[in-house]
Amino acid sequence: MLKHILVAHDLSREADIALNRAIQLARQHGARLSVLHVLEDHLPNAVQNNLRVAAQQYFGEHLARLGAEDCQLLLRKGRPAQQILEEIGDSQADLLVIGRHHHNAPELFIGTTLERVARHLGAPLLLVMGEQADKPYQKAAVALDFSLCACDALRNACSLLPQDARLVALNVMELGSRLLLKSGNSADFLATQRELLGKLLEDELSGLAGQIPTVELEVIRRGALPRALDEAVAEQRPQLLALGSHGRSLISQALLGSLALRYLQAPPCDLLLVK
Question: CA gyration radius for the chain?
Answer without folding.
Answer: 20
